[in-house]
Amino acid sequence: MSLTLTDITLTYPDGENRLTALDRVSLDVPQGSLTAVVGPSGSGKSSLLAVAATLITPDTGTVTVDGTSTTGLTRGELTALRRRRIGIVFQQPNLLPSLTAAEQLQVMARIDGRAPRTARDRALELLDAVGLADRADRHPHQLSGGQRQRVNIARALMNDPTVLLVDEPTSALDRERGASVIDLITRLTHQRATATVLVTHDPTHLTAADRIAEVHDGRLHLPAPVRRDSGAGRGTAR
């Protein structure tokens, strides 16, 4: 399993009490599969994604990324784990205005200590994979919303993560561009064998998922896996 959450409980201060955001949540996401997480606003979807990304430490339970338990890791060790094994696609691309599409990706590799030439080659490879080979030297203002989101996805894959966490990637896109982005995420999940978790509010995206997880009041409900005639990477969960 590339991503495993086991018996996760997360609470936040709420006056003199504590508010439960996640209530004994367990989830397994294998390599090469996509799990869609759905639920109403405030149900715990964002909290689940933040815990999976090791951005928040839960009260109880364990997070295991590619066989490594995050329990007991120092802040520096968690940062290194995120940098090398977890790709995060944020809801808004948040690209740096002064950098080209290729440079947005190269920054990620340089943070990880890769040589500039190697970083450039990797960036161009990924931009080609997301259909932007001819936009490598364009700045964000020269790209459409869908193209900027594709750069966002490529940037998340720059350091070859085993886990890909995607937060509402189509919220600012029209239906056609949104469908294109979801198709891209699905294809890259299978091609690059990432364990992908997609938080979405759009039910039309669920047909791309191997597993649909519903969050209500901090509890995770897992229907049967989506059935397909063929396709790689079907998810399992508990």
TrEMBL record:
> Keywords assigned by UniProt?
ATP-binding, Nucleotide-binding, Transport
Q: Where is the ABC transporter domain?
A: 3-237
Output the superkingdom of the source species. Bacteria
Instruction: Check the record and name the PROSITE patterns matching this protein.
Output: ABC_TRANSPORTER_1, ABC_TRANSPORTER_2
Q: Which InterPro entries match?
A: AAA+_ATPase, ABC_transporter-like_ATP-bd, ABC_transporter-like_CS, ABC_transpr_LolD-like, MacB-like_ATP-bd, P-loop_NTPase
One of the entry's Gene Ontology molecular-function terms is:
ATP binding
This chain belongs to which protein, by name?
ABC transporter ATP-binding protein
Q: What is the lineage of its organism?
A: Bacteria, Bacillati, Actinomycetota, Actinomycetes, Kitasatosporales
